[in-house]
Amino acid sequence: MRLGLRANLAQFGLLVAVNALVGGMLGQERTVLPLLADQAFHLSAYTGALTYILAFGATKAVTNFFAGTLSDRYGRRPVLIAGWLIALPIPAMLAWGPTWGWIVAANVLLGVNQGLTWSTTVIMKIDLVGPARRGLAMGLNEAAGYLAVAVTATGTGAIAAHWGLRPQPFLLGAAYVALGLGLTVAAVRETREYARAEAAAHPAPAAAAPAVTAQAHLGGGDQAVLSTARIARTTSLGDRALSSASWAGMVNNLNDALAWGIFPLLYAAHGLELGRIGILAALYPAVWGAGQMLTGWWSDRIGRKHLITAGMLLQAVALGLVATGTSFPIWAAAQALLGAGTALVYPTLLAVVGDVAHPAWRARAVGVYRLWRDGGFAVGALMAGILADAYGVTTAIWAVAVLTAVAGVIVAVRMYETHPRS
Q: Could you list the residue ranges that cross the membrane (predicted)?
């Protein structure tokens, strides 16, 4: 049993493909669902229209937390299979659900699906590659997922422009579920023993300063029997790097909730046709996805902290450009900037958790971090909806831009560098 990207390339590549299908499940909603809320279900209030993102984010956040614990207890592969099984009814519910409640219920299931599958593919890749290529591994994982989001958002937008908002765009999701479940059952192997082997080779984190910091907050003791509650406290509050990463991750996905639920409605209000809205909805995750193949590798070379700081500040600038823009070229530039900023942040935050957390409790730390990060969907949907209804869409976007800039400053001031070579 050997750690490393090259030694486990076949299984790693398969997990990248599986995560692309996971991303595609999310991408089927990005263009179509905000417009469906407005045009098919006639939800005029932003707060009501964004309930599906609130349901998705809250469910996914909680599922992320349990995914790490479940994968430590029962293994990674069973959790991944369970996530795909839960996804089976989602495309049909989106395509033919007669009321908005069906759409919200489908997004509850989607949150469980994403929490189990995406979290588990992240954990499995960290298991396989070891510490040397962790940033690159996370970059490839997130790139696959969000490029699939972009491709599917473009595809569903084109399908909807030709055939209508339902049911044809969601047939892509049905194909993704069938393929993802089939690949997982037939070819994905268990990786938990790789984490145990790494833990056995590093029984105490005395050699690495980040791990020493986290261990001080945990109070010492046997790494294998640390309680989930203690790990949650350390990841959320106790350790400066882990807690800063959790806060930055939450704000990052608050931005994503805004891009997912508010931006298509903003573009439609300015008269953009459906095809162009689909292009804008895809541009942000496309730049985000492709950029992560570089930024994950880059963080392995120069460290994590400064990339995260720069990415959060760049996202804040991009949101300001969306708020002030009134035309397709300006919004396209803003979406590209937002994608670039997110690419700097997204795999790097996961790499921070992998740097600091000991292999014996790393899966649970990833779960806690993803609890906070994907809680940003719920917070973003609620906050953006309330502000947009009360003060207008532009005010909601500016408020999120300010929060994003504050998160970048917090990382710059509070987070310590976690990459061992730095």
A: 7-26, 46-67, 79-96, 102-123, 144-164, 170-188, 307-324, 330-353, 374-391, 397-416
Phi, psi of 57 (to 5 degrees): -65, -45
Domain contains 197: no
Q: Helices 240-261 and 328-356 sit at what angle, rounded to 10 degrees?
A: 150
Q: What are phi and psi of 75, to 5 degrees?
A: 105, 160
Q: Is cis: bond before 89, omega within 30 of 0?
A: no
Q: What is the CATH number of the domain that holds 178?
A: 1.20.1250.20
Please measure the distance between the N-terminal and C-terminal CA atoms of the chain and give it in whole angstroms. 28
Q: What one-character-per-residue DSSP string does 345-409 give?
A: HHHHHHHHHHHHS-TTTHHHHHHHHHHHHHHHHHHHHHHHHHHHHHH-HHHHHHHHHHHHHHHHH
Rounded to 5°, the CA angle 90-95-97 comes to 80
Tell me the Ramachandran region of residue 416: left when phi exceeds 0, alpha when psi lies from -120 to 50, beta otherwise.
beta
pTM of structure: 0.77
**Domain of 402?**
9-190+206-414
pLDDT tens, position by position, 251-296 = 999 998 888 888 988 898 888 888 888 889 888 888 988 888 888 8
Nearest CA among 186, 249, 187, 174 for reference residue 21: 174
